[in-house]
Amino acid sequence: xxxxxxxxxxxxxxxxxxxxxxxxxxxxxxxxxxxxxxxxxxxxxxxxxxxxxxxxxxxxxxxxxxxxxxxxxxxxxxxxxxxxxxxxxxxxxxxxxxxxxxxxxxxxxxxxxxxxxxxxxxxxxxxxxxxxxxxxxxxxxxxxxxxxxxxxxxxxxxxxxxxxxxxxxxxxxxxxxxxxxxxxxxxxxxxxxxxxxxxxxxxxxxxxxxxxxxxxxxxxxxxxxxxxxxxxxxxxxxxxxxxxxxxxxxxxxxxxxxxxxxxxxxxxxxxxxxxxxxxxxxxxxxxxxxxxxxxxxxxxxxxxxxxxxxxxxxxxxxxxxxxxxxxxxxxxx
Length: 333
Ligand SMILES: CC(=O)SCCNC(=O)CCNC(=O)[C@H](O)C(C)(C)COP(=O)(O)OP(=O)(O)OC[C@H]1O[C@@H](n2cnc3c(N)ncnc32)[C@H](O)[C@@H]1OP(=O)(O)O
Description:
The chain has helices at 7-10, 36-57, 67-71, 135-147, 161-171, 288-297, 302-310, 316-320; strands at residues 15-18, 75-82, 92-101, 104-107, 113-116, 119-126, 155-157, 176-177, 183-186, 246-247, 279-280. By secondary structure, the chain is of the alpha+beta class. The protein has a domain at 239-260 and 268-327. The strands form three sheets. The protein has a seven-stranded mixed β-sheet, sandwiched between helices.
């Protein structure tokens, strides 16, 4: 991805890390330094274009990454540049990954709610011309080391099929722990929840390209004390919610409100085991108390009920396990 300005000079390192301040990194000695405001404008242009390209690649109706969204969130973006090819002497951008900590309510394999704050993969894109060349892995690996996380400790905001395959291939992440929100977590996510958070993105909120510390420690923390059940919101905020499509609640809440006349189209399918819910048209949500009451009453999942009917002997925890990976790409939108 090329730009009408010198990307190579703007980002001296192969991977540049930017936070909400979008501060231009220090330039190489001897390079002419344009006004700081111009450099920041260039950074904003790059982020906006990367966000648009990523949205297009994922068939999203709008970018989930932009300079303005970066400035209003505590996210960190890692940008990979092409340091070999220098088209027109200005360098090129290969791709980016955006991460951030989020408070989430996630279910463990005993179906208990856990309030945690893991590092989340929010957006990830490698330019089409160089996908499957190992650039995604290079960027992901760098991010893991800088943030001091291990892959199974991450929560992924509605991963695409490509990303799921990527995670499976490079990090052997396969078995998911079923959730009722948009985030996908993998087996092993809860293994290190007791460990304290490492100094990471939350401690170093400035542009940086510092040396990589190869020792990973757990970033996520379980947030004590446990809240009263009435305070727990079963749906955790996804960065993709502004896209104006609703996350479908689990059965029985996914039933459409009563209508005088039947709907013109059949309702969207309910979520399937191991998947984040599929999206359907916006519909009024039930009040939170009613939602929670229904959640307590409802079975973990329609598929689980089918399994129960077919195999009354196995344990519920076993039934909720899945070895297959979530969602077809079409179901994300
Ligand atoms: C939370 C989110 O951000 S979800 C959105 C994720 N982003 C996208 O889907 C955008 C389009 N895709 C991409 O930008 C890239 O393919 C990425 C970021 C997913 C991976 O980056 P790459 O540089 O292609 O990955 P890298 O070369 O390191 O690894 C390749 C592996 O990724 C997976 N992969 C990459 N592209 C594809 C594809 N088109 N089809 C299937 N698997 C793919 C495969 O496992 C592949 O291994 P293989 O070639 O042996 O099958």
